[in-house]
Design goal:
alpha/beta; Rossmann fold; 8 strands; binds adenosine monophosphate
C-alpha cells in the first residue's frame, strides 16, 4: 500500500503513521526524521537543512526531492510506503508524480488530517522529543513515566527548537501558504479526517479508509 499523510505540523501525522505502518507492515518515511538524522550526523544535507528547520521554513525542494528519490528506491519500499511530511510544495508533488511514473507505481491513498491552528499551538508547545532515539512525547496525552526522561532509552527529553511557539507560528504560516495548496492538487483522491478527535478515534477513521 502506498499512502501520503498530509496535514499541518502537530496534527498527529507522526503518531498515526506509526500505527498505519505497523498495521500494514510498510516503512514510515518522514522527511522531517530523515533531516533531523542528517543534522545529528552533521552530514552535508544536515548542514544545509538546519538553518531552514530552526526557523520553521521549508528546506529547498532540490534537497528534499533527491532525498526522497534515494529513499523510495530502497528495497523495503517495494511493497509500499507511507510518506509523512512529503510532499510539502506543489513542486515536490509534481516531482513525486514523475518519480512514481518512472517506477510504474501509483498512490493508493492520500489522507489529510485537519486541526485548527490554536489546537496545534497548544499541542506542539507541550511536545517533548528524545534527541537520542527520536521518540516523541506529549504532556497532554503521552506523558513520560519519569519526568523529562525517555521511556525507551533513558536519554534526557528536550523541546525541539522548531516546537517553540514563535517558530510554530511560522511553520503554520508556511503550511497554509506552501503546503495547503496540495489539498486542491490532490482533490480527486484526497480524504479529509477530523484530527481534533482523540488519537484512537482518528486512527479508526483512517483505518476505515485504508482497509
Ligand atoms: P516535520 O518533522 O515534518 O515537521 O519537519 C520538520 C522540518 O523539516 C520542517 O519544518 C522543515 O523545515 C523540514 N522539512 C521536513 N519535510 C520537508 C519537506 N518535504 N520539504 C521541505 N522541508 C521539509
Amino acid at each position: 500500500m502506498r499512502v501520503i499523510l498530509l496535514g499541518p505540523p502537530g496534527c498527529g501525522k507522526g503518531t498515526q503513521a506509526e500505527v498505519i505502518c505497523k498495521t500494514f507492515d510498510i516503512p514510515h518515511i518522514s522527511t522531517g526524521d530523515i533531516l533531523r538524522n542528517n543534522v545529528k550526523r552533521n552530514t552535508e544535507i544536515g548542514l544545509s537543512a538546519k538553518k531552514y528547520m530552526d526557523i520553521g521554513s521549508l528546506v529547498p525542494d532540490e534537497i528534499i526531492i533527491q532525498m526522497i528519490k534515494e529513499r523510495l528506491l530502497e528495497d523495503d519500499c517495494k511493497e509500499g510506503f507511507l510518506l509523512d511530511g512529503f510532499p510539502r510544495t506543489i513542486t515536490q508533488a509534481e516531482s513525486l508524480d514523475n518519480l512514481l511514473e518512472q517506477m510504474s507505481i501509483s498512490l493508493d491513498h492520500i489522507i489529510n488530517i485537519d486541526v485548527p491552528d490554536e489546537d496545534i499551538i497548544n499541542r506542539i508547545s507541550k511536545r517533548l522529543s528524545c534527541a537520542n532515539c527520536g521518540e516523541v512525547y506529549n504532556l497532554l496525552y503521552k506523558v513520560p513515566k519519569k519526568e523529562m526522561t525517555c521511556d525507551s532509552c533513558g536519554f534526557k527529553l528536550h523541546q525541539r527548537e522548531d516546537d517553540k511557539e514563535e517558530v510554530i507560528r511560522n511553520r503554520l504560516e508556511v503550511y497554509r501558504k506552501q503546503t495547503a495548496p496540495l489539498i486542491k492538487y490532490y482533490k480527486k483522491k484526497i480524504k479529509n479526517i477530523n484530527g481534533s478527535k482523540n488519537i484512537s478515534e482518528v486512527t479508526n477513521d483512517i483505518l476505515d479508509i485504508l482497509k
